[in-house]
Amino acid sequence: MSGLVVERATPLCQLQDAGRFGVRHLGVTQGGALDWVAMGWANWLLGNPLGAPVVEVALGGLRLVCQRDACLALAGADLQARLDDQPLAPWRHFAVRRGQVLDFIGPRLGARTYLAAPGGFLAPAVLGSCATVVREGLGGLAGGGRPLQAGDTLDWRGAAPVAREMPAALRPDLAAPARLDLVVGAQIGGFDSRSLFDAFNADWTLDTRGDRMGVRLQGPVLDYRGEGLVSEGIPPGAVQVPPDGQPFVLLNDRQTIGGYPRLGALTLLAQARLAQCVPGERLRLRARDADSAQREHRRYLERWRQV
């Protein structure tokens, strides 16, 4: 018997995990949960490995029918989740019974939420991961990169979960203004002084043009005056500036090389926060050095071992 049946979904409802690594030299991108922090907490709530397969729900539009009793967990955005018309808050585990309906209506706070099941949802590993990457036709329930759609069944075989309570103080504050740390890159010196001032002192607005490959920022025009570039490898969170001067941030499903000049790359924690921004939301960029960003990242990972 399956655990959940998909009654309704959008292309933004996908099976994700920590992503696939060790294959970028083949031109294969990593995929994986855009908000790895929320994914990790959803799995932590059930005692799962932090990167176990979850359902990433972006902006709502998903309805699931429960086929058996279980304990599930939810972390990330408040998408007005409801269990049989009863509100269901994120950052917690919850019990479901056979026949109940789990609905994700739409964003109230944040953009993406993550649904976890005991041991992680079952799906074949393709190049070491079940992460859905539609453009490359990889991952997902059948391995071909298809998002969830009506009629799909989701199952798991994990043991009874080690249900945990997440301390309220550790829940990311998605209502706070987004301040995204950026480690400056090799081409930073090619931008004129006014552009560099504006990049880190002006507000940016998240454009409606965006997907899991990348999102565009609207704001002051950045002027690059350096030499032309040969395409090179690009990391997740890279902030590229095309000729129109409006930067875009490359995300998990990005191409593996690119030739536009870069301001640098968002830290992993900043990438998770960006994943929770909705179109039209304002944000700021903050310059950060690599050493302090790495120390902050290690401190954050330590939280999962301390709680």
From TrEMBL:
Domain Carboxyltransferase as annotated: residue spans: 25-304
Domain of life: Bacteria
Transmembrane found in the keyword field: no
GO MF annotation: an example: transferase activity
Record-linked Pfam families: CT_A_B
Record's keyword terms, sorted: ATP-binding, Hydrolase, Nucleotide-binding, Transferase
Hydrolase as UniProt keyword: yes
PANTHER family: 5-OXOPROLINASE SUBUNIT C, CARBOXYLTRANSFERASE DOMAIN-CONTAINING PROTEIN
Protein name per its UniProtKB record: Biotin-dependent carboxyltransferase family protein
